[in-house]
Amino acid sequence: MGLAIRDNQTRRLRIGILVVLVIAVGAGFCLFLSGSHFGHAHPVIILDIDTLRADHLGCYGYQRDTSHWIDELASQGTVFEWAFAQAPNTPPSQASILTSLYPRTHGRVTGKDRLPEEVTTLAEVMQAGGFTTAAFVDGGYMAPHSGLSQGFETYHSSPEGLKGLAALGPFVFDWVRENKEENFLLLIHTYDVHTPYDPPPPFREIFLNGLEPSTPGFEPDTKTMKGVMLRARRGELNQLTAADIEYSRALYDGGIRYVDAWIGSFMELLRDNGLLERATIIVLSDHGEEFQEHGSVLHEKLYSTVTHIPLIIRPPGGMTARRVDQVVESIDLMPTILDMVGLDEPQTPMEGTSLFPFLKRRPVSRLEGLGPAFGESPLFGGRVFVADGTHQLLQTRTTEVLELFDFRSDSKEQDDISQQHPEVVGRLGSKIERFDQTSADTTKYLPGVRVIDDQDLEDLRALGYLE
Ligand SMILES: [Zn+2]
Question: For residue range 278-289, what is the model confidence (pLDDT) as tens digits?
Answer without folding.
Answer: 999 999 999 999
